[in-house]
Design brief:
The protein has helices spanning about 15-30, 65-75, 110-120, 150-165, 180, 200-215, 240-245, 250-265, 295-300, 315-330, 350-365, 390-400, 405-420, 420-425, 445-455, 460-465, 470-485, 490-520, 525-555, 560-585; strands spanning about 5-10, 30, 35-45, 50-55, 55-60, 85, 95-100, 125-130, 165-170, 225, 270-275, 305-310, 335-340, 370-375. With about 625 residues, it is of the alpha/beta class. The chain folds into three domains: about 5-85, Double Stranded RNA Binding Domain (2-Layer Sandwich); about 95-420, TIM Barrel, CATH 3.20.20; about 430-620, N-acetyl-b-d-glucoasminidase (Four Helix Bundle (Hemerythrin (Met), subunit A), Up-down Bundle), CATH 1.20.120. The strands form two sheets. It has an eight-stranded parallel beta sheet. A six-stranded mixed beta sheet has the order 2-1-3-5-4-6. The longest helix has about 30 residues, at about 525-555.
């Protein structure tokens, strides 16, 4: 709880200051009163300034959002008698992209809290990633049963952001990543394939005209992100059957020209992910392994569209510098998007976030990139609550205003802006990598996900995890997160979830470590003990499911949790089945054949690193789940 501090801001205040101050002051413990300490405020150039001396307190802001960051700095150093902090941002614009399309759609009140945190950090752009989770009045199936935002909800959020000095803008898809829309029979006629919309079809552009207009309508911003990434199979599905083969570069350019004509008519400034300019030149269809752009790629670039280079993987600044060089060769304005690793499973990975974000930001700074985005994706069901991205947001903000990464400064600022212990967020990485386990560079291992969902009989990861004491590791994490939950009122539900998650894994991992050798070795005494341990894991998993539901509903709209609910229901059901069958063997029945199978490595590479497993379908069974 912040100690109450009475102040009286006066001077050059930005529009709607009273409303914005009221929103952020509650996080800092400030009270605005004429009897409070006078804070003189001016608007000027060269960033923000916070100064305290015998003459009083002085704040200077260049952008309105910088004033709210300045208040957080004042709060941080309130007890000092004299100090001076001057900050000039590295980037013209620093944004946060919020993924509200991967089943989890943030409640408007949750988004408002995120915007307040962004203001305290000094981030001035919020990007709403909505594949089909926004309203198109003429398309009732678009976002149906997905928790889509109404136009009124988005207008209210845009207005709230504007008061805080934050520009809110839409980020949609106009080529790929449209599976959830295209799977409806009412929109199936627009398919190139299951993910990609059909280029060169007039029905497509009639649909996109309405989609882009609806996406932009709630916002004051004239920016729009039109997506266009990971559109695998362009020209090779319906387009091939209807029009014959054509080089994908030409199809993409023609489609982009049609989309840009729409954004131009609506007075919008478009940006797009840049990977589809590189994938056709790659021998593997990848983003990063092609050489300098081919002439076909350069010819495919459409003037007036900003390219957003996204990279969440590389750990060497030279890799980022080379990609910026490739983008310069395309001759289009370039922005940069780095990642906060919230998409690997139930726990964010800050080891990987730091390893990638810092060199990426350093390279972006050296390249003079004007716009930088932090992204927090929710692939495969948005299992990690978006609150876990807060420390990553703070990381990007502190780099922007400080010019480098300073762990001590990051932790101090995080405590002020988010009221949290940075270590409790950093330690989430311990859920993903157990001692003795090494990660692959592009797909970091995510123990928490594959051990939570690994079937107790069909143990696909037994060969990968032999000799690693995961049960002991998670038992220690349970105690650690119990302490974090006890110490934090604001984040108690979040940390209580992780405490319970660690407890489930402590029991379940012990089963996975010992049941296979016990059954193959005929050790029924150990198998009996493991059955009792797995029954405890089942009981704990049922409580975790209820806690997860409460956490989800406190942050997100209820839509989408049915996926996690089903997953956890299956986890519990399979534990019950495993207990029944192993107990039957202990009592003289048949040994489960699944546990007698030869143990083979699954994701372990020749060098001994484990690749991450990010989709439940590749974890729970060797059989195809969705036949």
């Amino acid at each position: 709880m912040q100690q109450e501090k009475s102040i009286f801001p006066c001077g050059a205040l930005p529009p709607r200051f009273g409303e914005a101050f009221e929103a952020v002051a509650r996080h800092l413990g400030f009270v605005r009163t004429e009897r409070g300490e006078r804070v003189q405020i001016e608007q000027g150039e060269n960033g923000l300034l916070v100064k305290k001396s015998a003459q009083g307190i002085f704040l200077r802001w260049e952008k309105p959002v910088q004033l709210y960051r300045a208040f957080s700095i004042l709060c941080e150093r309130w007890n000092e008698t004299e100090f001076r902090v001057e900050e000039k941002p590295c980037f013209e614009t620093l944004g946060m992209m919020l993924d509200v399309s991967r089943n989890a759609v943030l409640r408007p009140e949750s988004l408002k809290t995120m915007l307040e945190r962004m203001a305290l950090m000094g981030m001035d752009l919020g990007m709403m990633y909505t594949e089909d989770t926004y309203e198109i009045p003429e398309q009732p199936y678009f976002g149906w049963m997905r928790g889509r935002y109404s136009i009124a909800e988005l207008k209210e959020l845009d207005d709230y952001a504007a008061a805080l000095g934050i520009e809110l803008c839409p980020c949609i898809q106009t080529l790929g990543h449209l599976n959830r829309a295209l799977h409806w029979p009412a929109l199936a006629h627009l398919k190139e394939n299951e993910e990609v919309i059909l280029a060169d079809d007039e029905h497509t552009y009639a649909f996109l005209e309405k989609a882009i207009a609806a996406a932009a309508a709630p916002y004051h911003s004239r920016r729009i992100h039109i997506g266009m990434d990971e559109a695998d199979g362009v020209g090779l599905g319906t387009h091939l059957a209807r029009f014959g083969y054509e080089d994908p570069h030409a199809i993409i350019r023609r489609h982009l020209e049609r989309v840009k004509a729409i954004t131009d008519r609506l007075g919008l400034n478009a940006m797009m992910w840049s990977d589809m300019y590189f994938r056709p030149d790659s021998p593997t269809g990848d983003y990063y392994d092609s050489g300098m752009p081919s002439q076909k790629s350069m010819d495919a670039v459409v003037k007036g569209v900003t390219l957003v280079y996204w990279d969440y993987f590389h750990e060497d600044k030279a890799d980022y510098a080379q990609m910026f060089k490739k983008h310069r060769a395309l001759g289009a304005p370039t922005a940069f998007a780095g990642g906060i690793w919230t998409w690997a499973g139930p726990a964010a990975d800050y080891d990987k976030t730091l390893a990638c974000a810092v060199p990426g930001l350093e390279a972006a700074k050296e390249a003079g990139v004007p716009l930088v985005l932090a992204t927090a994706w929710g692939d495969n069901g948005a299992e990690a609550n978006l609150q876990t991205a807060l420390l990553g947001m703070q990381l990007y903000a502190e780099f922007n205003y400080g010019g480098n990464y300073d762990a001590t400064r990051l932790a101090r600022r995080f405590e002020v802006c988010c009221g949290a212990d940075a270590r409790a967020f950093l330690r989430l990485s311990a859920f993903n990598t157990a001692p003795g386990m090494r990660s692959g560079p592009m797909r970091p291992v995510n123990t928490v996900k594959f051990m939570l969902y690994q079937d107790p009989l069909v143990q696909l990861y037994e060969g990968d995890t032999q000799g690693i004491a995961m049960g002991e590791h998670f038992a220690a994490l349970e105690r650690e997160y119990a302490a974090y939950a006890q110490a934090s009122e604001t984040y108690k539900p979040l940390f209580e979830f992780y405490r319970q998650l660690a407890g489930v894994l402590a029991c379940k991992c012990e089963w996975h470590e010992r049941i296979g050798p016990a059954v193959r070795g005929g050790d029924k005494q150990t198998a009996q003990r493991m059955t009792e341990r797995l029954r405890e894991a089942e009981a704990r998993a049922k409580r975790l499911r209820a806690t997860w539901r409460e956490l989800w509903n406190s942050t997100n709209k209820p839509f989408g949790f049915e996926v996690i609910d089903g997953r956890m229901g299956a986890v519990c059901a399979r534990m019950e089945t495993a207990c029944t069958r192993v107990q039957a063997w202990v009592e003289g029945g048949e040994a489960p054949p699944e546990l007698l199978e030869r143990v083979l490595p699954y994701t372990r590479t020749a060098g001994g690193a484990l690749m991450g497993s990010y989709a439940v379908g590749e974890i729970v069974s060797a059989c195809k789940i969705d036949v």
